[in-house]
Amino acid sequence: MNTIALGASRIRYEVTTYFRQGDSVFFTFLFPLVMLTIFSVAFSEQSFGPPGAEISAAAFYLPGMLAAGLLLSGLQNMAIDIAGEKGDGTLKRLGGTPLPVLSYFIGKIGQVFVTGILQAALLLLVARFVFQVELPTEPEAWLTFAWVFVLGVTTAAILGIALSGLPRSGKSATAVIIPIVLVLQFISGVYLGFSQLPEWLQHVASVFPLKWMAQGMRAVFLPGSFESVEPGGDWNLVGVAVVTGIWFVAGLIVTRLTFRWIRKDS
Question: How far apart are CA 82 and CA 124, in angstroms?
């Protein structure tokens, strides 16, 4: 119980620290909203979808931006943040305190959940009331959104912790992590229609979790007429769960093997 209480305290600390960092807030929290606004305004005169079932640019790009938000709040945020803490000695100092490793991770992952929920809520509110996007009314759609969100943000956070050991220093973390995140967004159907990509690139993107998180979000927010242009002709929510779950397990394994805490008995 003390470990859980310390973890809850760490969540408050991590969230407060996060929103005090202007660059993190812009490039992880507000970035999907900025991109949604840009695409919605730039393509406001265009319609997307099959004849008779066209939707606006804001409605078309909303699912991709929600998925990108999961990756930014989880993978990018965690990888850069923890790499920075290793570089400036914060992790070493924490290793000399009674703070258990579990409490530390509760704080980190809890922060990702809080900021991810706030980010998704902001995107949905702006889409609905600024760009007049019709949101789903069926409970089944929101249930799908809930499990795709929870699985996606958890997987992204775990992968971020695993990737935090990739940069050689805290100063190089941004230069190492952000290009990876940008490439994944461009090949995973966030900025470009996934069906418009070359088939070989679709196969490459299908290896990574962002493509599946974006597909899960499209299943929630796009009309059923868009299902036919997906690979295989359906939303394949089972595939979304399986592939994302595999990456979650892989991230846990890598984290367990690579993350180093100064105090071995904690």
Answer: 29
